[in-house]
Specification:
- There is one protein chain.
- This protein is an alpha/beta fold.
- The N terminus is likely disordered.
- The protein has a single domain, classed as 3-Layer(aba) Sandwich (Rossmann fold).
- The protein has an eight-stranded mixed β-sheet, with helices on both faces.
- The longest helix is centred in the N-terminal third of the chain and has 13 residues.
- Helices cover 36% and strands 17% of the residues.
C-alpha cells in the first residue's frame, strides 16, 4: 500500500452555503483537544491543503466515551482553546456541535448532523489519526460511519501500514480495494478511506498534561496563547 504525500466563518455563514445549493468540501477533525497543540494544528493545515477543503472544522468532544472524565478538562475550556489556537487562520473553524448535544459524544451522530446540514451532494471528510482508527470497532455503529462520510487517516513515516490494511479488510469490509491513482481504498456504495502521510511532530496531549503536573515548561509545544490560557485557568495541575 502506498501513502498519499500531498504537498473563520461563523456557523451561520458556513451552514448557509448548503441552503443555497453550493457544493461544499468539508473536513471534520474531532478529538478531545485536551489541550490542542501544534501537532493538531499542523495536521489540520496539511489535510486542508491536501484535499482542497473549503472549510475544516475542529470539533472538541464534550463527553468522550473512551476517556475517563477526570482526565479531561471542561469542554467549554477546550472549545475556547481551539478557538484561540486557530484565530487568524481563515480555513479553520471551531465547532461546538458536540457541546450542544446532550449525552456522550458519538461520532456517528456528529457525521449524520453535518450530512443533514449540507446534504448528500456535499463532500464530507472525517479526519482521524491512525491510532484512533485502529480502535474503530469500539465506536458506536462503526460500520455505518463509512456510509456517512469519507475517512482521512493521518499516518506518519513510522506507521505500520499493513495493520491499517488489515483493519480495513477484516473489520470494515473485505470489498474495499486499494486505488493507487488516488491513494485510497474504495468500495462501491460506500465512502472512501484515504491515507495521508503528515508531518510527524512528537507531541501529545498526554505528555503536555504530565509536564504541567510536574511543573515543566510546555512552551513551543502549544501556541503561546494556549500556554497563557492554561496558566491563567490553572488547567491540568
Amino acid at each position: 500500500m502506498r501513502i498519499a504525500d500531498f504537498s473563520p466563518l461563523s456557523h451561520f455563514l458556513t451552514f448557509s452555503l448548503s441552503q443555497y445549493g453550493v457544493f461544499v468540501r468539508l473536513g471534520l477533525f474531532g478529538g478531545t483537544f485536551n489541550p490542542i497543540h501544534l501537532g493538531h494544528l499542523r495536521a489540520a493545515i496539511e489535510v486542508r491543503e491536501a484535499f482542497n477543503l473549503d472549510r475544516l472544522l475542529l470539533i472538541p468532544s464534550a463527553h468522550p466515551p473512551h476517556k475517563p472524565a477526570d482526565h479531561v478538562a471542561n469542554a467549554e475550556d477546550r472549545l475556547e482553546m481551539v478557538r484561540l489556537a486557530i484565530q487568524g487562520e481563515p480555513w479553520l473553524e471551531a465547532s461546538d456541535v458536540e457541546l450542544a448535544r446532550p449525552g456522550l459524544s458519538y461520532t456517528i451522530e456528529t457525521l449524520r448532523y453535518f450530512q443533514d446540514q449540507f446534504g448528500p451532494e456535499s463532500d464530507i471528510h472525517f479526519i482521524v489519526g491512525q491510532d484512533a482508527f485502529s480502535e474503530i470497532t469500539t465506536w458506536k455503529s462503526y460500520q455505518a460511519l463509512f456510509s456517512t462520510a469519507h475517512f482521512i487517516v493521518m499516518t506518519s513515516p513510522t506507521s505500520k501500514l499493513h495493520n491499517l490494511e488489515d483493519i480495513i479488510h477484516t473489520q470494515i469490509s473485505g470489498e474495499y480495494q486499494y486505488d493507487p491513482r488516488f491513494n485510497r481504498y474504495s468500495r462501491p456504495g460506500w465512502c472512501n478511506i484515504y491515507c495521508l502521510n503528515i508531518t510527524h511532530l512528537d507531541i501529545s496531549a498526554t505528555k503536555i498534561r504530565g509536564w504541567i503536573r510536574r511543573g515543566r515548561s510546555i512552551r513551543f509545544l502549544v501556541p503561546d496563547i494556549i500556554h497563557d490560557f492554561i496558566n491563567k485557568k490553572g488547567l491540568y495541575l
